Give the backbone structure.
Amino acid sequence: MSDAPLAGLRIVECATYVAGPSGGMALAQLGADVIRVDPVGGATDYRRWPLAPGGASLYWHGLNKGKRSVAVDLRAPAGQELVTALITAPGAEGGVFLDNNVRRAWLSWPVLSQQRADLVHVHVEGHRDGRPAVDYTVNAGVGIPDMTGPEAAGAPVNHVLPAWDLLTGSTAAVGLLALLRRRDRSGEGGLVQLALADVALAAVASLGWFTEARLAGRNRPRHGNHVYGSFGVDFPTADGRRVMVVALTRAQWRALCQVTGTDEVFQALQVALGVDLDDEPGRYLHRETIAAILRTWFEVRELGTVNALLEGAHVLWGPYRTALDVVRDHEAAPAASPLTDHFQPGIGPVLGMGTPLRLGDAAAVPAPAPELGADTSAVLADVLGLTSTEIGRLHDRGVVASPGTG
Amino acid sequence: MSDAPLAGLRIVECATYVAGPSGGMALAQLGADVIRVDPVGGATDYRRWPLAPGGASLYWHGLNKGKRSVAVDLRAPAGQELVTALITAPGAEGGVFLDNNVRRAWLSWPVLSQQRADLVHVHVEGHRDGRPAVDYTVNAGVGIPDMTGPEAAGAPVNHVLPAWDLLTGSTAAVGLLALLRRRDRSGEGGLVQLALADVALAAVASLGWFTEARLAGRNRPRHGNHVYGSFGVDFPTADGRRVMVVALTRAQWRALCQVTGTDEVFQALQVALGVDLDDEPGRYLHRETIAAILRTWFEVRELGTVNALLEGAHVLWGPYRTALDVVRDHEAAPAASPLTDHFQPGIGPVLGMGTPLRLGDAAAVPAPAPELGADTSAVLADVLGLTSTEIGRLHDRGVVASPGTG
């Protein structure tokens, strides 16, 4: 991947769970040499579920694809010296550090920047005051579970996707590249701090939802599966599948009416109700009526027929798929699938992707995740210039570990 | 913002809704000059709900903070020439284009790169084969709604947060900065394409959930508000509030047992069940039992008491807040709030944030969104060097618009 956009760049990552590791992976998949540093035996996320039958974590291996792995005794002063040296090693393509909830003083900006003044350091945390937070607690705090789920749900509904972790990881990568661009121009390094809770607050505020509640003096009610402010909802099909159908623009709405043969019904309804269904607010306010009229069209057709007709009519829609449906669709037509079935040492075949950022027409085949500590010796040699004797001694003293030695 | 990391960089954005605009905003909030180009009168997202009482979109203004706005007749050849000139204007800090679902040939890479070979172009789309998709249809297709909601939910539960749009926008910003870094080094520009559907598939695959379903031969059942693979769930408090409590690590679990006085209960339970609750799988498999035992502690205490006790004990937790709770918490202690109450022309006070990437200790006060077309004349003058006579003529012919002229 020598002409990859970030080829040559070296980043040291000390991070766990989703946020930091997913940000580091995004950069690794664009060609950066991301060196993940872990304690010997792995960090707290190393056995996180889901697991493969042999006990390896599908989650850990999924979130650390394309990185190198170094295993170090982080409590030993010699281990701390090595990690500090890796982070602050000289060279225009090094001196970049991404951490996630690390509270160790020796890994903090004031200490590290004494070793390398132009360090670029991205520190991801829970709350900006240092209190811990995770996706589940942050999501609870921004009003989302209160808006999610069926209208009759009497209690908050959590999301299952760690959306804030993923967005925070990506935002950390943006911050890292932005600071790096400044360093390339001015020589100036810097620390950027990023709180998971702030990412969530900033995003929900950007959608206008807090100001909406303040102006209305009340919270937006739950809408079930309806899209807020426009028309979009799910319909069951004759064969027990389900589709999501959306009409944001006038063209999408007209296409939907035409293919379902409901043009005249809705024309008459517009007159009867005195409403313009060509405008989003009209469709939103009458979403239940619209859905009831359209439902009968979907419930007598199977998914294959619905697919052919809606695609032909340029309706904006998509089928609901379970995880197993995604797997089966991939296996039925692997060449058409954005996923690849790649081999992960320690696990076997796994479904994954390289970067979704396509630089050519071909799908990127992801590099697998490293075995824990697999690159310990190579990194100590090529970044710090240690000899094999010195590296052997570090192993003997238990300061570092490689597979089979830890 | 002259020492902002991206100061000097000029990006032209042709994008609507959430994905492209949120990515452009992230770059603007780091100091880039992001010039949003819209058709005269605004694009299809210009009146998207929620609205302020005067009819302005809280959503549009929230997602376009800190940009400049140029309004152009995109159907007129003269308008197309102007936009092409803006995108491909010379200079190391220009020649960067972010688009979102734009299918116009004159705004495509093959055409634009003839004007400027080292153009950096990020093209966001629905599916990689060009078919349209939006957050709601993409989310349906990756299995998430099938895992979301109460265990008894008989149908998929959509998320309300446009998580895939936000993640796609941020990923687009990562791609843009990565290509820019390559251009800074080699002079080589390029096109990067990014499909919303691929972002979602890649992320869910990275969490291991597709391979999990394939290995198990079945889909993961719904877990309500429980955290998968560990212990985390919500509890109601005596005063009608609700909290999310999580114990991923042993230390978090021990802290929770201690503060709730359940140490001995869980010790006895471990013996009785023959399970190790210090490990995540044990806590996950017995999550209902654990939740039932802990629930009584929460339901007799008010939120204030729960807060004080859990914080003191270093338990990982957070209160559920509605959007209105967020507003009230901000108004009760604005200095402690990451949000700011800034003035948005055309709307009034709105709650928002600048970039969550903190370069110093102070919260960034967000720049407001531009009025549509507010920067038309300034951009034509400072990027293209047009005279005020030329700019006046373009207004007279209706090729461009400024507030009050469109």
Notes: Chain A is about 40% helix and 15% strand. Residues 176 and 322 of chain A are 35 Å apart (CA to CA). The two ends of chain A are 31 Å apart (CA to CA).
